[in-house]
Automatic annotation (TrEMBL):
GO terms for molecular function: oxidoreductase activity. This is SDR family NAD(P)-dependent oxidoreductase. Coiled coil: none annotated. InterPro entries: NAD(P)-bd_dom_sf, SDR_fam, Sec_Metab_Biosynth_SDR. It comes from Lentilactobacillus parabuchneri. Belongs to the short-chain dehydrogenases/reductases (SDR) family.
Amino acid sequence: MSKEAQFSTDKFRLDGKVAIITGGASGLGFNYTKAMLISGAKVVIASYDEKGWDETSKFAKSVNGEVKFIKIDVTAKEAPDIIVNAALSKFQKIDILVNNAGMQRRNNSVPI
C-alpha cells in the first residue's frame, strides 16, 4: 500500500458537483480537495495563502480535475459574496461548502 490514502470512489461519486473549500490547498483542506477531485467534483479554493497552489494544480491535472483559486482573507466581511460570485462565474453553481480555513488567536474571541 502506498503512503497516500487509498480512496474508494465507486460509492462516493461527485461528478458534476462544485465544492468550495476554504483553506483547501494545505493541511487537512488539501486532503479534502484531493478527495473531492478524485470523486469527480470541481473545486473552488478560497485562501489568503498561495502556498500549496502549485501542488494542488498538479494534483488536479493528474486526476483530470478542475480547480479555481481565489486569493482572499476569508474572515473579511465581503469574502462570502466574492467567493460565491467567483464560483458561480466559473462553474454556474455551488453544491458543497467545506469551511476548513482556521486561525489561532491569542486573545478572547468576540462574544456572540
